[in-house]
Amino acid sequence: MKSLTRALFCLIALTLGAGTSAAQANAHSTMAPGTGSPGFDKLKTLVGEWEGKAQDGARVNVSYRLVSNGTALMETLHPTGESEMVTVYTADGDRVAVTHYCNANNQPHMRTAPVSGNPQKFDFPFVSVTNLASPTAGHMHHLAVTLTDNDHFSQTWTWRENGKDKTNTFLFFRKK
Questions:
Q1: Is the pTM value of this prediction over 0.85?
Q2: Which residue, 103, 110, 99, 105, is CA-closest to 74?
Q3: Which CATH number fits domain 38-174: 3.10.129.10, 3.30.470.20, 3.40.50.10190, 2.40.128.20?
Q4: Most C-beta atoms within 10 A of its C-beta, which of 65, 99, 107, 110?
């Protein structure tokens, strides 16, 4: 009788322990992991829908959403009269890396210097580019993002073609 009681007690304990472990594992799998990157964590505040204007007055819409279990921030930028473009921001240690999927059919990669504290401005210099037709072909070569407050930010993109740079600044406000 004692061995039957002991076996039953062990079975109940194992069952409860397995259920608790499964519940804990399930809870952890649904939460986005922390990145430990203050820069990337700050950029995640952009999640949502935004309206804006380019410096020439053209309207532009942009949206941000977290993808890949919160490890990437996907930006979808749609300037008036152009096809939309996607830019993906990811933590890269204490830096933030960007890959821009341009409607010019190339993919520039840019990355910040190490970021700490509570950054408001992000400077993304050029690192490399894939699918560039020639070394002088046009591509995005630099990005600066400035977070003014929770409802306003700006982007300045630098386009490089034939060794010459042209910038375009976009001012955005959060859709309410």
A1: no
A2: 99
A3: 2.40.128.20
A4: 110
